[in-house]
């Protein structure tokens, strides 16, 4: 069992959206597992399938880890992997720490650079169910490319926008004060169309069904991090 010692350092100054996300998920932390079950969230099942085809990572960074729900999925497939988690919600950070599955869990706003994570410090990065909260996912992906070792992988989801069926897949949606940003398939592919990325899979799925009955479409992505520096802005 890894050392579940808390990393108590917080990043000062989360973005306004980051603060709104933190408030939303702080309020949901106690019933999060039930919310996920009721919404038939696709993330854990999709992750389990993808992990079957990946080489064992020594270090896994779980972005937007919430209460550590994906930790058991990673552990089942790769028992020796060292897991680190990141979330902006303090309640979720505490819950992920309490799971005992993560070596460290830090409170951090993904709208900010991952400057406390070293270059080449992970073989696998997960960004499931969290990128729709960012207006600029490209900035985070540059950071992910820096943190990943060459040969490493990113498994991620994006909320989908379908320009020809905007009623089913709008450009943005809201939960309370939190905005969810959706991208077209071409926009997602464009994030990975140049080195150091190689797009290995891009699949359209129903990500989850919200309490109001909205079947939220997702793009599920596997991307390989090739050699070379992260691409410039
Ligand atoms: C829907 S949950 C997904 C949890 C987990 N990744 C999964 O797939 O089951 C989204 C999580 O992302 C976190 N999150 C959203 N925006 C974030 C941000 N800007 N910085 C850090 N965490 C964020 C939320 O606090 C929440 O815990």
Automatic annotation (TrEMBL):
SUPFAM superfamilies assigned: S-adenosyl-L-methionine-dependent methyltransferases
Keywords: Methyltransferase, Transferase
Full protein name: Methyltransferase domain-containing protein
Domain Methyltransferase positions: 60-152
Statement: the UniProt record of this protein carries the keyword Electron transport: no
Molecular functions per Gene Ontology: S-adenosylmethionine-dependent methyltransferase activity
PANTHER family per record: TRANS-ACONITATE 2-METHYLTRANSFERASE (PTHR43861:SF1), TRANS-ACONITATE 2-METHYLTRANSFERASE-RELATED (PTHR43861)
Keyword Transferase on entry: yes
Domain of life the protein comes from: Bacteria
Annotated signal peptide: none
């Amino acid at each position: 069992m890894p050392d579940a010692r808390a990393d108590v350092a917080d990043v000062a100054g989360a973005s306004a959206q980051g603060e709104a996300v933190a408030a939303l998920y702080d309020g949901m932390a106690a019933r999060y597992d039930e919310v996920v079950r009721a919404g038939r969230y696709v993330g854990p099942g999709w992750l389990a399938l993808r992990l079957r085809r990946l080489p064992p990572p020594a270090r896994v960074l779980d972005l937007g880890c919430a209460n550590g729900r994906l930790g058991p999925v990673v552990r089942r497939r790769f028992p020796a992997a060292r897991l680190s988690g990141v979330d902006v919600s303090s309640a979720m950070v505490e819950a992920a720490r309490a799971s005992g599955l993560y070596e460290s869990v830090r409170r951090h706003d993904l709208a900010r650079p991952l400057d406390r994570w070293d270059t080449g410090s992970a073989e696998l990065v997960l960004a499931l169910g969290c990128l729709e909260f960012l207006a600029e996912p490209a900035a985070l992906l540059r950071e992910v490319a820096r943190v990943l070792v060459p040969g490493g992988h990113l498994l991620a989801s994006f909320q989908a926008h379908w320009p020809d069926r905007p009623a089913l897949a709008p450009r943005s949606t809201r939960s309370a004060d939190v905005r969810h940003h959706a991208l077209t398939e071409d926009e997602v592919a464009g994030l990975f169309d140049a080195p150091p990325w190689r797009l290995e899979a891009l699949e359209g799925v129903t990500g989850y069904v919200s309490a109001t009955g909205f079947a939220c479409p997702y793009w599920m992505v596997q991307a390989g991090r090739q050699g070379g520096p992260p691409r410039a802005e």
